[in-house]
Amino acid sequence: MSSGILQRVKNDLIYGGARLLMAPFGALSYEGAVGLGAAIGRLAYHLAAGERRRALAHLRIAFGEQRDEAELGSLVRACFEHLGRSAGELLAIRSGRVRLEELVLFDDADRERIRRAYSCGRGLIGVTGHLGNWELMAMGVSAAGFRVNTVARRSYDPRFDRMIESFRNKHGVYCLYRRDRDLAVRAAEVFSRNELLGLLIDQDTRVPSVFADFFGRPAATPIGAAWLARRHSCPVVTFFTFRRPDGRHQVVVSEPIEPSRSDDLQQALAADTAEYNRRIEAQIREHPEQWVWMHRRWKTRPPG
What we know:
With 304 residues, this protein is an alpha/beta fold. 52% of the residues lie in helices and 16% in strands.
């Protein structure tokens, strides 16, 4: 059997398994779906030994001098449970078990910050990271009356892309894809319509990046947000969300971030990106159990 056929069989099994795993959530209440997601997250903590060790190693980098091993181990467990709970929340929304307006909350001051940022008429860039339930946040921002576009990466399997894009579109979130040739054109169209473009910049990816401090170590950080802001003269704000003790989600929005005044473009992009990184780190420090510590954030190293 050729490698191509084997790969297709493998992809079919993964896709079929994902659809099979999703099926029970449709029959559950919202609380039941979230509880099942949390249980799956706890199970993954025990089964995914490599991911568990990696998350613990990264937490040692970030908090090793401030927290003991028992605390760091508890954070790893909480991180896995959080990701499972987040998946349960999204699947419950997919089945119509809860309204976004009841689940995703904004303070009046945060809504007003968004409106003021839009008042320039040139669109808006929303910088964020994989903190809290970031997919839910995008849908909540859309439900609050602000059309959301986001830059995403295509999956290896187009069926997953279609499934995810359909779900996002249904809730007012529209995808631009990272490696598409018309990405720059579509981004310009977003700004010309005075809409929001969301970018997650807290992962080490194969896109133009600079090294910016992240928990005391240089981390390759995408410069796309800083470049687009200068190219289109549009404001940049940060959006973050975190799960509250009552299970709902609070969105916090910053005032527009003042860009670097350096005349050197590369220096300006690096300075702006470093400021975005600093704000992401500050939010992760507030809610460390709600970030993806298993991601290899410091994988790419500076020369030398």
